[in-house]
Amino acid sequence: MFKSSTLLRMATIEKFEDIISWQEARTLNLAMGKLIDSGRFKQSFRLINQIEGSAGSIMDNIAEGFERSGNREFIQFLYIAKGSCGELRSQLYRALDRGYINENEFQQFVTQAKKVSSFIQKLINYLTASDKKGAKYKSTD
User: Topology of domain 19-130, per CATH?
Assistant: First the structure.
């Protein structure tokens, strides 16, 4: 569960850039970009595109869901973002199996993806338990 200070911070979030899971997803996306830019994926353009897509999808779906200003839609987009974390982890297995990354890198990236997924799940849990519906429903809050 969230500590009260975390709940207070969540209650005062005004833009998606303030969301810890988005910040962590951005960090993960940057790490994936650096990995791809290193050139180790050779000619595996499909895997590159899939990794770029799923890593970007995590942060993009958190942002899009937040901008819809309703908790129900936000939760839906958070589940999509969480699914993209799983998709990225699966792609990392493929990169490991093809020798594009080593075991240490794999463990580091998977741990980072699981951390993002955990933050997203905690946000989902918080929003699900909240009686607030979101900014677009302000008159009923």
Answer: de novo design (two linked rop proteins) (1.20.1440)
